[in-house]
């Protein structure tokens, strides 16, 4: 199958867009050059919607708007939406002259209507029509889904239509190991056509059930009737439990993906900021500011008190005080201050003994004489005591005013000012941080992270519930199969003993033999084809990343294990986690090599439509990925940004059968040089290739690198 043409009407940004695809085997590459926000992913969704319906849309189409977001209600409240895809199917048929190749062309049209009511909308069930194209026109075909499902099985939608990030789903670490294995296993088995064998096994089991029913109705013996009834019940239980198991596996994978999706949303929101954490940070900032304001108030009071302090007076009067203290010190050195004469003399009189040791007693004539002399000295001293007391008090009381170096106040001032200014700087910084937090909070999208976490918990509980259910069903199935084997063996023994049971026994043995052959073929094809896919994937992967195991490369090889795990080996066969130990370019190369190998081994000729496959790559790896993808694809359609194209121009020159450019007029004037003159948000197409620009698509960075201008 090859894509020929696609046309979209009112599908989100694609109001009126037509695309053509290269079908030239020699130039099988189609490049759609488009910057970010220019409809690349939208086209990928639109192509899948045209072929597979709502099931191919994100969330299976639930709450996924299709009409343009800026649709003007004056143009009508009912928005007609359509996606048309023309494709070619090649079949090989045996004829008298040998194998003959036949090409048939088809057009599939899927349409729906969305009715807008304010901010709400409602979508009508989509209608799909399929036409066979021929020289005389287009003939309608019934059951279009059957043809699409045969040529492009829905299970392989993610293989043929994918984006650079989606390809990583085969190795991403965010989902359970069982989910990754299921994805790889489902892709391999679907592309290898193992569904045909699965249907055949089911058909043989049904035939065996019919034979068993006849054994029950034959009336050969009561014991055989009982065994046949039990086998019939077991077969019914097996069918029921196998359906339940498949449902449990599907539900587990769905909820596992939902958990991973919620994790991505939480991570994306947290990259921009955690709203709850920001609120806590703002509250902490407010408390810090309050504390700093209180400390600033204290510092301002200390600053004010400096101008009422003794130190400012001391430093200002230092020259005068120095002279006064000089004189006081001289009086002190002379013993004139402090005045201690009168207290000492009075004390000696009380003791009746002079300081020289002579008696001062009244009863002694000499003592009385000396006593009178001392009393006279005391009286004489009291006359000058008041002045002496003042000078003494001044000497001792003025000690605190003793002049220093005249810098005490300045030092205290500097200390207070430094402390206050430091606090003010901290206060200003805290205020700026709080304003920044408030702006960050205002700029956050209205994402309820706690709500997302609650939803994640619910999804995880659901996922774990289906995991437990799956284990229970697998245990029941194991028991039922064991019981079936035992009962079948007993049934065969009894039938051999009965003449009437020979035919029934032969039929049962035939069904069992056919079942064993089919199951053996199923396992053999899976095992052998898995080995082929694994080997080719390794070859393509090593070529893409330029790794030579013989030259000491870190990555030695990659393989798909029998358990359907994609494994990468490093030195000494040490395993590397593909999602954690490989860089972004190697991870993309690994998953793209898996898809290309799968397509190649299956010999299915189908398009590989990939959005931004060269993201996170550069240099050799980028060019190698592109060259290898072109070589291994029957038809390769790539949506590339200008950055992805840079460095690969020569490869596109060689292999590009169709190269076109898409532009979003909403990018004017910030990103586009010229005004496209379109008010609507819609994707516009021009015929510029990867080396040229025109008035419509010229971007500011194009002007900087001087790409060729198309007139």
In short:
Helices cover 55% and strands 16% of the residues. It is α/β, with parallel strands linked by helices. Strands 1, 2, 4, 5, 6, 7 and 8 form a seven-stranded antiparallel β-sheet that branches. It has a six-stranded mixed β-sheet with strand order 9-13-14-3-15-16.
Describe what this molecule looks like in 3D.
The chain is of the alpha/beta class and 711 residues long. Among the domains are: 203-274 and 445-515; 284-440, no CATH class. 55% of the residues lie in helices and 16% in strands. It contains 20 helices and 18 strands. The protein has helices at residues 40-52, 144-151, 157-160, 177-191, 194-217, 222-272, 275-306, 310-316, 318-333, 341-351, 365-383, 385-397, 408-443, 449-497, 502-545, 584-602, 619-632, 642-645, 649-655, 700-705, and strands at 2-11, 14-20, 29-34, 78-95, 98-117, 120-123, 127-134, 137-141, 161-163, 557-560, 566-569, 575-576, 607-611, 635-640, 656-663, 684-686, 692-693, 708-709. The strands form four sheets. Strands 1, 2, 4, 5, 6, 7 and 8 form a seven-stranded antiparallel sheet that branches. It has a six-stranded mixed sheet with strand order 9-13-14-3-15-16. A hairpin with a 2-residue loop joins strand 1 (2-11) and strand 2 (14-20). Helix 15 (502-545) packs antiparallel against helix 17 (619-632). It is elongated. The mean pLDDT is 78.
């Amino acid at each position: 199958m090859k894509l020929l043409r696609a046309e979209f009407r009112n599908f989100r940004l694609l109001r009126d867009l037509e695309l053509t695809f290269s079908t030239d085997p020699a130039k099988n590459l189609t490049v759609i050059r488009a910057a970010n926000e220019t409809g690349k992913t939208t086209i990928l969704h639109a192509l899948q919607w045209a072929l597979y319906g709502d099931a191919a849309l994100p969330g299976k189409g639930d709450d996924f708007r299709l009409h343009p977001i800026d649709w003007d209600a004056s143009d009508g409240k009912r928005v007609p939406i359509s996606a048309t895809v023309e494709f070619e199917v090649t079949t090989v048929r045996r004829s008298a002259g040998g194998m003959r190749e036949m090409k048939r062309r088809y057009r599939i049209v899927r349409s729906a209507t969305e009715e807008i009511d304010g901010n709400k909308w409602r979508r009508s069930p989509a209608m799909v029509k399929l036409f066979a194209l021929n020289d005389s026109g287009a003939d309608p075909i019934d059951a279009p889904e059957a043809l699409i499902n045969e040529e492009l099985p829905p299970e392989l939608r993610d293989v043929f239509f994918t984006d650079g990030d989606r390809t990583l789903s085969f190795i991403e670490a965010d989902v359970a190991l069982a989910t990754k294995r299921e994805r790889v296993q489902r892709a391999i088995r679907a592309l290898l056509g193992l569904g045909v064998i699965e249907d055949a096994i089911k058909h043989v089991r049904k035939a065996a059930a019919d034979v068993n029913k006849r054994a029950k109705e034959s009336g050969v013996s009561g014991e055989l009737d009982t065994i046949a009834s039990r086998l019939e019940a077991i077969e019914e239980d097996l069918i029921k439990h196998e359906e339940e198991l498949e449902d449990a596996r599907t539900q587990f994978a769905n909820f596992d993906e939902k958990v991973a999706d919620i994790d991505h949303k939480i991570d994306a929101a947290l990259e921009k900021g955690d709203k709850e954490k920001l609120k806590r940070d703002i509250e902490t900032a407010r408390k810090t500011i309050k504390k700093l304001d209180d400390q600033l108030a204290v510092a301002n009071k200390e600053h004010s008190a400096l101008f009422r302090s003794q130190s400012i007076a001391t430093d200002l009067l230092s020259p005068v005080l120095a002279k006064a203290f000089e004189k006081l010190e001289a009086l002190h050195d002379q013993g004139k201050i402090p005045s201690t004469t009168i207290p000492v003399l009075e004390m000696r009189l009380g003791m009746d003994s002079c300081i020289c040791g002579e008696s001062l007693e009244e009863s002694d004539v000499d003592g009385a004489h000396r006593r009178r002399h001392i009393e006279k000295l005391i009286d004489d001293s009291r006359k000058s005591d008041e002045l002496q007391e003042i000078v003494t008090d001044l000497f001792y009381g003025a000690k605190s005013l003793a002049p220093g170096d005249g810098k005490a106040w300045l030092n205290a001032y500097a200390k207070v000012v430094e402390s206050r200014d430091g606090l003010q700087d901290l206060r200003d910084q805290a205020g700026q941080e709080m304003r920044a937090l408030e702006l960050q909070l205002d700029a956050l999208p209205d994402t309820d992270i706690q709500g997302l976490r609650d939803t994640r918990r619910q999804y995880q509980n659901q996922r774990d519930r289906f995991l437990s259910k799956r284990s229970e069903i697998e245990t029941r199935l194991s028991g039922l199969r064991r019981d079936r084997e035992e009962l079948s063996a007993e049934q065969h023994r009894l039938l051999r003993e009965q003449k009437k049971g020979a035919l029934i026994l032969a039929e049962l043995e035939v069904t069992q033999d056919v079942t064993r052959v089919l199951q053996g073929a199923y396992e053999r094809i899976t095992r052998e084809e898995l080995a082929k896919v694994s080997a080719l994937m390794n070859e393509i992967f090593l070529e893409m990343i330029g790794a030579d195991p013989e030259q000491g490369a870190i990555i030695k090889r990659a393989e798909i294990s029998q358990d359907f795990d994609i494994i990468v080996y490093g030195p000494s066969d040490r395993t590397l986690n593909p999602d954690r130990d490989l860089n972004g370019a190697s991870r993309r190369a690994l998953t793209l090599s898996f898809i290309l190998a799968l397509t190649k081994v299956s010999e299915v000729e189908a398009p590989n439509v990939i959005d931004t496959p060269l993201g996170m790559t550069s240099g050799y790896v980028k060019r190698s990925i592109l060259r290898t993808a072109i070589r291994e694809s029957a038809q390769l359609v790539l949506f590339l940004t200008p950055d992805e194209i840079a460095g690969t121009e020569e490869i596109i020159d060689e292999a590009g059968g169709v190269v076109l450019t898409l532009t979003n007029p909403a990018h004017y004037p910030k990103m586009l040089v010229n005004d496209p003159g379109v008010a609507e948000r819609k994707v516009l197409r021009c015929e510029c290739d990867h080396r040229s620009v025109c008035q419509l698509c010229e971007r500011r960075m194009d002007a900087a690198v001087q790409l060729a201008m198309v007139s």
